Amino acid sequence: MRIAFTADEPKGLDSVISYHFGRCPYFVIVELDGRDVKKIENIENPSAESHAVGELPQLMNQLGVNIIVTGGMGPKAQEYFAQFGIQPITGAYGKVRDVLEEIIEGTLRETPAVSEERPSHVEGENEEIRRLKLEVRELRREVAELKSLIKEIMRGR
């Protein structure tokens, strides 16, 4: 089984899952043999800046992906994945390692997906929007770290 995770960075299992499917900078692809990780690949999203509709589902299909995991994905993209027999899982957050463990253990609970609606462009807001995006990315990293720490604490019980 091959699972693709949207990622903000190319750090394999330690990558933070990106909240935006189409514009994520990277994908982490994990190949499983049963419950064991067989291979991990970090690939740059060739369409992070702009892409044609259906392009990324087609790429994932070519890469042999069975499941795509992300924070948010629009319904149109989900339809394209379904055409290729690829299961989308939305609403994921944290580190790839933790979400992968939840998938393997069968404990992953999908949360409501982050909306992929894009804010309308208002002149003069570009700098503020860029700053807010950076703050959100940093907050997602912090949440991912906290989620990992909580899992470690729970294992030690």
From TrEMBL:
<dbReference type="InterPro" id="IPR036105">
    <property type="entry name" value="DiNase_FeMo-co_biosyn_sf"/>
</dbReference>
<protein>
    <submittedName>
        <fullName>Dinitrogenase iron-molybdenum cofactor</fullName>
    </submittedName>
</protein>
<dbReference type="InterPro" id="IPR003731">
    <property type="entry name" value="Di-Nase_FeMo-co_biosynth"/>
</dbReference>
<dbReference type="Pfam" id="PF02579">
    <property type="entry name" value="Nitro_FeMo-Co"/>
</dbReference>
<dbReference type="InterPro" id="IPR033913">
    <property type="entry name" value="MTH1175_dom"/>
</dbReference>
<feature type="domain" description="Dinitrogenase iron-molybdenum cofactor biosynthesis">
    <location>
        <begin position="14"/>
        <end position="104"/>
    </location>
</feature>
<feature type="coiled-coil region">
    <location>
        <begin position="122"/>
        <end position="156"/>
    </location>
</feature>
<keyword id="KW-0175">Coiled coil</keyword>
